[in-house]
Amino acid sequence: MDLGAITKYSALHAKPNGLILQYGTAGFRTKAEHLDHVMFRMGLLAVLRSKQTKSTIGVMVTASHNPEEDNGVKLVDPLGEMLAPSWEEHATCLANAEEQDMQRVLIDISEKEAVNLQQDAFVVIGRDTRPSSEKLSQSVIDGVTVLGGQFHDYGLLTTPQLHYMVYCRNTGGRYGKATIEGYYQKLSKAFVELTKQASCSGDEYRSLKVDCANGIGALKLREMEHYFSQGLSVQLFNDGSKGKLNHLCGADFVKSHQKPPQGMEIKSNERCCSFDGDADRIVYYYHDADGHFHLIDGDKIATLISSFLKELLVEIGESLNIGVVQTAYANGSSTRYLEEVMKVPVYCTKTGVKHLHHKAQEFDIGVYFEANGHGTALFSTAVEMKIKQSAEQLEDKKRKAAKMLENIIDLFNQAAGDAISDMLVIEAILALKGLTVQQWDALYTDLPNRQLKVQVADRRVISTTNAERQAVTPPGLQEAINDLVKKYKLSRAFVRPSGTEDVVRVYAEADSQESADHLAHEVSLAVF
Ligand code: NG1
Ligand code: ZN
Fold first, then answer.
1. Does residue 498's CB lie within 6 angstroms of at least one atom of ligand 1?
2. Does the CB atom of residue 62 touch ligand 1 within 6 A?
3. Which of 190, 252, 424, 458 has the fewest CB atoms within 10 Å around its CB?
């Protein structure tokens, strides 16, 4: 380690005095102007992690659905997953070290993690479309090079595309080619094969309106659409040409306000979807003939996907173990439908995709989605091989189903939840099953629900257990929530400190919207 060079370059990316940040569920996130030093230091850290794992590490510069003025950064581990927890702590220490302590912290991390400093390092970098992202990603590169790391800057990418690149590079190309064309070709080939098999390919299935949150999704869909246009034509809205990133549009806005984005004209029964600012979340929606808005969130996406996968397995004659992973925010109706009607086991983890991803890896086929539309499906290597064999060896209907499953496996981004990949999976399933958006929506009826944010002096006084569904501290809070919940029918409520904002989140559901609203309000009063 050339400590002299590190000190010299670090001074060019100086940390604002007194600024303390934490590597949270989605890496570091705050106002872009406070992040230059963090980017430089994450470049350094990515090199150490790459040396330790002897693998390519990813660095993504994005703040997802946050306002345009914010930015953020997260590291991507070798198999495309989120950074290992012990390294999240190192990230926090390094980001908060005062200038004079930087060298010591770097050496500490290297020693604790037994990093061989002679090992080569390779880092890949991607960024979203925020005005601040280009300069900030340059600071990451400064950090990488000052520690002697090699790098490839992919420039503008969706977050899941960067995860895909990292995964491809560390699996010797078995998963796919680590180029943007490789990504487009892999997904489009699988999608076009699938839609060719659909008997219902009328106009209804051929077009989709997409709200791109004025973000990277628009750019990437434009680049990609000619690859899959045989199967689907997409009409893009909020493509960044006029509006501001995530402002009054995008998946987070639609899900949290339960209303359509601005800037999109919706005719009744038209199928529409929204991406978030870095295109790792997707939600669907439509207006019915009476003009009522219907949201189809991550829970219903998981239901559609898992029921289709289950049907294919029955057709092929394979009994594999499928599990669905949700969080406490999953609508109670979805959990009941999955367990009681579809007879699929459902598991609940803490909020944050890394928890869902890890749980989903335990199954032959693990489908995971957060209610907000972040998710994907994972297939074990053994399952992938078995299905490939079946697609070659079986006959007639069984072979057709195995071929379909093979293509569906290729269409999922197994490194991370991916709005583009999920959109193509959903579109293929709807076409193959001949389902309209209304029929999909009618699988079950969501329980009315309400989410609120409460500002408190210190949100850390609230701690939780049982996948965040019960409060442990402060004393008495859970008892108070239990008493309130008893007052309503089909009700459930919980509180938890947010991992990405300085707020406590309150969630309530009940048999009517009015009851859900009341319950959420009463619980938020109990939090004070
Ligand atoms: P927090 O702020 O911890 O609730 C939010 C989302 C998560 C996840 C992360 C990362 C909700 C209720 N929470 O976390 O699901 O997406 O941001 O972006 O949607
Ligand atoms: Zn996102």
1. yes
2. no
3. 458
pTM of the model: 0.96
Give CA–CA dist 193/183, Å, rounded: 16
Please name the fold of domain 182-294: Alpha-D-Glucose-1,6-Bisphosphate; Chain A, domain 3 (3.40.120)
Question: What is residue 32's DSSP assignment?
Answer: G
Could you give the CA distance from residue 14 to residue 36 in angstroms, rounded to a whole number?
8
The atom of ligand 1 lying closest to the CA of 374 is 16
Q: Whose Cα sits closest to atom 17 in ligand 1?
A: 500
Pocket flag, ligand 1, residue 464 (CB < 6 Å): no
| CATH architecture of structural domain 449-527 | 2-Layer Sandwich (3.30)
Catalytic residues: 64
- The domain ranges of the chain are 3-156, 182-294, 298-425+433-441, 449-527
Residue 499: CB within 6 Å of ligand 1? yes
3-state secondary structure of 465: strand
Model pLDDT for residues 203-255, shown as the tens digit of each residue: 677 899 999 999 999 999 999 999 999 899 999 999 999 999 999 999 999 99
Contact indicator for 515, 489 with CB cutoff of 8 Å:
yes
Residue length of the chain: 528
Fold of 298-425+433-441: Alpha-D-Glucose-1,6-Bisphosphate; Chain A, domain 3 (3.40.120)
Q: Return the ligand 1 atom nearest residue 499 CA.
A: 3
The Å distance, Cα 158 to ligand 1 centre, comes to 18
Distance 374 CA to ligand 1 centre (A): 10
Of the listed ligands, the closest to the CA of 24 is 1
Is the C-beta atom of 496 inside 6 A of ligand 1?
Answer: no
CATH superfamily, domain 3-156, is Alpha-D-Glucose-1,6-Bisphosphate, subunit A, domain 3 (3.40.120.10)
Q: How confident is the model at residue 285 (pLDDT cuts 50, 70, 90)?
A: very high
Contact (Cβ atoms closer than 8 angstroms) between residue 80 and residue 167? yes
